Amino acid sequence: MNLSPAEQSDGCEGNRSEQMLPCFRRSAYDEPLAPYNGSVISHLLRKTIHSKLSSLDMLYCANESGATDEEQSGGEDLSVDVEQHLQAKRARVENIIRGMAGSHGDPERECESARSRRDKRKQKLPLHQEPDAKPKTSKDEECHKLKEQLQSMQRLLHQLQEKISHVYDSEGEPKPGLSRESGVKNLQETLKCELTRTVSESIDSVFKKLATKPSTSPEYKPSQDDSRSEISDSEEVSREHFESDSQTEALSLVVRKPSQSQMIPGVKRPFPLHQTPFQFGYNTPLHDSQILEHLLKYGPHSAFSGLPCVPASLERSSPDSMEHSWESVAMRSKAHHLGQHHHPAGLVPVDSLCLPHVKMECADLQSMERSSFMALNIQEGLTPNHLKKAKLMFFYTRYPSSNLLKNFFPDVKFNRCITSQLIKWFSNFREFYYIQMEKFARQAIIDGVNDVKDISITRESELFRALNMHYNKANDFQVPDRFLEVAEITLQEFFSAVSLSKDSDPSWKKAIYKVICKLDSDVPEDFKSPSYL
DNA sequence: ATCGGCCCTG
DNA sequence: CAGGGCCGAT
After folding, report:
1. Which residue is nearest to nucleotide B2 (CA to C1')?
2. Residue A423 CB closer than 7 angstroms to strand B?
3. Helical packing angle, A356-364 and A107-124, nearest 10°
4. In which region does residue A410 sit, left (phi positive, over 0), alpha (psi from -120 to 50) or beta (all else)?
5. Are A162 and A82 in contact (CB under 8 A)?
6. Does the nearest atom of strand B lie within 7 Å of A414's Cβ?
7. Inter-residue contact A531 to A312 (CB < 8 Å)
8. CA–CA separation, A499 vs A493, rounded Å?
């Protein structure tokens, strides 16, 4: 993956297309790409994937599920070339098959030993040290990083092709314990389509970015206006693919993916909120095993969540600011503790689907660079960051329309489930809000308050603190004054109603809701940024 | 039939 | 916070 010094010193001033081409020529697909544009790239990628889907070796491994977690902290050499990887894999396969042919006992041990052998091999591999000759300018660095990202994506794509083809090829094999005729097949289809689409879109985005972006100032300072315009730019790229179902140019070969609930009967669309998405530390190499496993567990839409969308991130052009941006995102998302480690009703963990060959692949995958993930991150699920953002938005709007939500979560691909989940969030927010209001209103009455005019809410109020703790736990957001006003009005409404014993009517709150729902104010434009948090 | 909202529950 | 039941509106 490392660039030769010559390539590094090329700089970015020249024709960008020419500069990027070598990255692709070195790839598994040998066709030189003469003129580049997003659709050509996408087409080639898809073509490559589809042509290779049924051509690769098969793998058997009953169980290697423990491997992914264990290997997360390993400092894998990301530069292992694909050929070596394939050879290693074949050797491993032979070994595994041999083991299966003999005693059918303890396949896990077989995988374990295979893994340790692989690890030993890894240690022997020469480290591809980054040449000391570092680019001199930020521009060069930026270019360098982009190159690396693209190359990483190539490798990822190549590896994914293998994984996909393994899944595909194993179709005819007996899968003990799983009546999965439709389920597995659909899962396979989804994986293939989703991976293909994701990679294609990402590369399109990057290239579109490169094609249109004027040379960037080395000291890029993200300002509100700049980021806004750039983000909307990136939205264009994404929306192009997401929204126009009639769009045939770039995605003509990509089957539109059915929702997961359609794919696996009885399995509801899983949203990964009960588990923290990948935490991307800048220096922590990520495993595609993590991706695939996550993908398999939570569905394709949630695979790369928790991160700002790529083009916006790339806009923070200087390497330093880019790093800072990503790191801070990861750190902030860490601050959320949403971990409820149970499976929501209807969510069937992949383990229970008995997909041994798939799991094997998950564990077997090589590590990937973080940058590849960033490039692949097209949000298709709601993340803890989205939840945090939604909570902050509640300070402005208690009753957001689904249109508003769509507008303010531009990095989320909306579907029915996502929309209703977001709406549900706000419903839950309101519930908490109104419960607090009623509680404090009644307390005020108990405390002997007689006049509504004596009811007020300031930032020092206990009620406000409770609300702030709920919606703005980190307390890193300046709650707008208007929210205090609305809260005060709400509290007064409750106070009056209870004072007048209106609460004897079972639906006495509805009148209050009717008042409050008219007090929504506009959400600041800043919230539209996909990487707002 | 679908959606948005509330209520209740875990 | 998510699910599920219920209701009214469309």
Report:
1. A416
2. yes
3. 20
4. alpha
5. no
6. no
7. yes
8. 10
Cα dihedral: A180, A185, A191, A192 (round 10): 160
Q: Using a 7 Å cut-off to protein CB atoms, list the covered nucleotides of chain B.
A: 3-8
Q: What are phi and psi of A368, to 5 degrees?
A: -125, 160
Of A66-75, A301-310, A412-421, A437-446, where does the model show the most confidence? A437-446
Q: How far apart are CA A340 and CA A337, in angstroms?
A: 9
Q: Which residues 380-399 on A are within 7 A of strand B at the CB atom?
A: 399
Residue with tokens 């994914």: A160
Handedness of CA A341, A342, A345, A351 (dihedral sign): positive
Q: How far is the CA of A356 from the C1' of C9 (A)?
A: 49
Most confident of A93-102, A175-184, A363-372, A481-490: A481-490
The spacing between the Cα labelled CA in A434 and the C1' in B7, in angstroms, equals 13
Cβ of A434 near strand B (under 7 Å)? The reply is yes
Do residues A342 and A274 lie in contact, with contact meaning Cβ atoms separated by under 8 Å? yes
Residue with minimal CA–C1' distance to B8 is A431
Q: What span, in angstroms and rounded, lies between the C-alpha atoms of A166 and A364?
A: 12
A287 pairs with which residues across the strands? Answer: A367
DSSP A137: S
Which of A244, A152, A167 shows the shortest CA–CA distance to A199?
A152
User: In the predicted model, is pLDDT for residue A206 greater than 80?
Assistant: no
Q: Are A339 and A276 in contact (CB under 8 A)?
A: yes
Q: For the residues A88-95, what does the mean pLDDT come to?
A: 43
> Do residues A287 and A367 lie in contact, with contact meaning Cβ atoms separated by under 8 Å?
yes
> pTM for the complete prediction?
0.40
Residue A156: which pLDDT band, with cuts at 50, 70 and 90? low
What tokens were used for A387?
Answer: 């939840």
pLDDT given at position A377: 55
Joined together, the tokens standing for residue A141 give: 């660095």
Residue pair A334/A417 in contact by the 8 Å Cβ criterion: no
SS3 call for A28: coil
Contacts of A445 (CB under 8 A, 6+ apart): A495, A498, A499
Q: Which nucleotide is nearest to A517 (CA to C1')?
A: B5
Lookup: nucleotide whose C1' is closest to A425 CA: C1
CA of A427 vs C1' of B4, distance in Å?
A: 10
- Please give, chain by chain, protein residues whose CB is below 7 Å from any atom of strand C: A 268, 271, 273-274, 338, 344-347, 382, 387, 391, 421, 424-425, 428-429, 431
